[in-house]
Amino acid sequence: MTHSVHKLLSALVHGKAADDYVFTRANGKPVRDFRVMWQNACAHAGVPELLFHDLRRTGARNLRRAGVAEGIIMKIGGWRTRSVFERYAIVSRSDMNDAILKLQESENRVEQERLQAEEQQSQTSTQFGHSEAISSLPPASRAVN
Question: With CB atoms counted within 10 Å of each terminal CB, which end of the chain scores lower, N or C?
Answer without folding.
Answer: C
